[in-house]
Amino acid sequence: ALAAAESARLAPAYTADGRRIAVLLNIAAPEDLAGLDPAICDGIGLVRTEFLFETSLGLPDEDTQYAVYRRILDWAQGRPVTIRTLDAGGDKPIKGLTIDGESNPFLGLRGIRLSLARPEVFRVQLRALSRAAVHGVLKVMLPMIAVPGEFDRAGVMLDAEFAALRAEGTACARPPLGIMIEVPAAALCAEDFDAAFYSIGSNDLTQYTMAAARDIGSVADLNDAGHPAVLTLIARTVEAARKLDVEVSLCGDAAADTRLTKALLATGLTSLSVAPVAVARLKAAIAKVGS
Ligand code: PEP
Ligand code: MG
């Protein structure tokens, strides 16, 4: 029985009616991959990089970041790896970086907004990512994007850092740049972005759509990713991605909620990203869809 469970975990995911669904991993640190066989997944859909910035050692330098990103790419053995740039603020305060005392940190200077406000910090991360990109299939994802101008500014900065590395003779590549869809404005206007891919962040998308914070227990009932309003925004994003012929995945906690698997796949999604512990459960739920 154990051997059967392990082979089910390693097998690629198909719905009962034969649709291939990519199952990717969410990780918050490279240690999350310890002892894991990369064959359980189709790649890594979300690397949260906040852990690098949460230490008491201050902000991580370029070499420190590069070493960590490279380790993750090495683990993936050629599978795609999506690394998200720093998503500080809101539920992820970082000492010395995020603003103390904002009246509503979830609506404040967080995610890409903070990175663009602190270019000296952001550039170091973009350089480390460009250097790591030669070691595998790296995709870089921007969090909390609301308007195309944010994506465009980040793209210009990535181009500049890549060009500077090349001019120095440092091994590097320009990774494709994509966006999280987690602000309702971005979901509603997804086709206005020139992004290489989308990844739907259902945690934030749900809280902003339902006006119910992800971390306030007394409104947890309202914080429902299965609400038709949230599912409509997800379907809307998937449709935009189809039209533009760009990849789309979903990496929020809803991907691991097997009560929602059927509804999520009904939006047209063919890629879900979950924590390693949820892989077997998700694959089993996918196999029941369409039966
Ligand atoms: C999300 O918002 O759904 C997401 C995946 O990002 P985080 O939970 O890190 O905000
Ligand atoms: Mg988020």
Structural write-up:
Strands 1, 2, 3, 4, 5, 6, 7, 8 and 9 form a nine-stranded mixed beta sheet that branches. Helix content is 38%, strand content 14%. The protein has ten helices and nine strands. It has helices at 2-10, 62-76, 112-117, 119-132, 148-168, 184-188, 202-210, 228-244, 261-266, 279-288, and strands spanning 13-14, 20-27, 44-47, 80-84, 137-142, 177-181, 197-200, 247-250, 271-274. With 291 residues, it is α/β, with parallel strands linked by helices. The longest helix is centred in the middle third of the chain and has 21 residues, at 148-168. Bound molecules: phosphoenolpyruvate and magnesium ion. Residues 46, 48, 87, 182, 201-204, 251-252 line the site of phosphoenolpyruvate.
- Write down the secondary-structure element order: HEEEHEHHEHEHEHHEHEH
Provide a count of the helices: 10
Q: Percent range for helical residues? A: 25-40%
- β content, as a range? 5-15%
Q: Give the strand tally.
A: 9
What molecules are bound to this protein? phosphoenolpyruvate, magnesium ion
Alpha-beta classification: alpha/beta
Approximate shape: globular
**Span between N and C termini?**
24 Å
Average residue pLDDT: 96
Oligomeric state, counting identical vs distinct chains: single chain
Cα Rg: 19 Å
Uncertain stretches of 5 or more adjacent residues: none
Summarize the structure.
The chain is an alpha/beta fold. It has helices at residues 2-10, 62-76, 112-117, 119-132, 148-168, 184-188, 202-210, 228-244, 261-266, 279-288, and strands spanning 13-14, 20-27, 44-47, 80-84, 137-142, 177-181, 197-200, 247-250, 271-274. Strand 3, helix 2 and strand 4 (80-84) form a beta-alpha-beta unit.
